[in-house]
Amino acid sequence: GIQVEQSPPDLILQEGANSTLRCNFSDSVNNLQWFHQNPWGQLINLFYIPSGTKQNGRLSATTVATERYSLLYISSSQTTDSGVYFCAVESFNSGGSNYKLTFGKGTLLTVNP
Amino acid sequence: KAGVTQTPRYLIKTRGQQVTLSCSPISGHRSVSWYQQTPGQGLQFLFEYFSETQRNKGNFPGRFSGRQFSNSRSEMNVSTLELGDSALYLCASSFVSGTTEAFFGQGTRLTVV
Lengths: 113, 113
Description:
The structure holds 2 protein chains of 2 kinds. By secondary structure, chain A is an all-beta fold. Chain A has strands at 4-7, 10-14, 19-25, 29-37, 43-48, 52-56, 59-64, 69-74, 83-93, 96-97, 102-103, 107-112. In chain A, strands 2, 4, 5, 9, 10, 11 and 12 form a 7-stranded mixed beta sheet that branches. Chain A has a 5-stranded antiparallel beta sheet with strand order 1-3-8-7-6, with no helix packed on it. In chain A, a hairpin with a 2-residue loop joins β9 and β10. Chain A starts with a strand and ends with a strand. Chain B is 0% helix and 53% strand. Chain B has no helices and 11 strands. Chain B is globular. Chain B starts with a strand and ends with a strand.
């Protein structure tokens, strides 16, 4: 099945710094999403971005589907940005979608005041 | 509109018992997926349902089962609980899996003692 690799696994920043999280995937995808897992475990949707670039406030994301990677940018980080960020993809197979999201292992972001 | 609702939020069970978890998707969404999250294995796909039909199943033993009702609500059942089944169980809904964004519930945290 498709492989999803996220880097870096851990990232420690000072408040106000910028960061880039990367997600590499091994096959064509028809869905790519970025999530932030809150301390209670819920996955919060950040971006649905199978291709192209999107921005939402201090966050932006870019997916280059032909090169099989996606980037999540966090600017002017705040302590509330701390947590685990997941990339998840849904891939095609010969019959169409395989109807499941495959997750990377996540990036644990810690933003210190 | 209301999000994905999972009940119960927390559950403690004894080895050998069975458990049923419930998921109510966003109104109008017809695809419901289930995922298990553990510290060691990360987020793993359990199964996906669309219009009461299971379209894909992850690599889990037969003790894990699910179903979807005509109103798109879904339940998953785990029989003969083992200590290793302790995990956060997350449910996701989407309008049509494969081409649309998935939204997750708050999860059910199951502890098997």
